[in-house]
Amino acid sequence: MASVEAIRQILRAAGVRWQATKTWKASRDPEFVPKMRRILDLYDRSAAGQLPAGARG
User: This protein's superkingdom (predicted)?
Assistant: First the structure.
């Protein structure tokens, strides 16, 4: 595994710089909350082993 310093040097050589997020973009989708809850429920059920292999919910 590369050290943090090695990664920093590689990124710097490639012209990539760290930039923290300055703004937050909220979804304008009126169905965002129900969709988010469904996805999070699928994650939880999958992690608990409650979905059969290959299930799509």
Answer: Bacteria
Please say whether the beta carbons of 44 and 57 come within 8 A: no
pLDDT 10s digits, 15-35: 988 787 788 889 999 999 999
Q: Please name the residues in contact with 46: beta carbons below 8 A apart, sequence gap of 6 or more.
A: 55
The amino acid sitting at 50 is Q
Does the residue 41 lie in any domain? yes
Is 1 inside a domain boundary? no
Task: Tell me whether residue 10 is in a domain.
Answer: no
Range of the domain at 36: 25-52
The greatest distance separating any two alpha carbons of the chain, rounded to the nearest whole angstrom, comes to 46
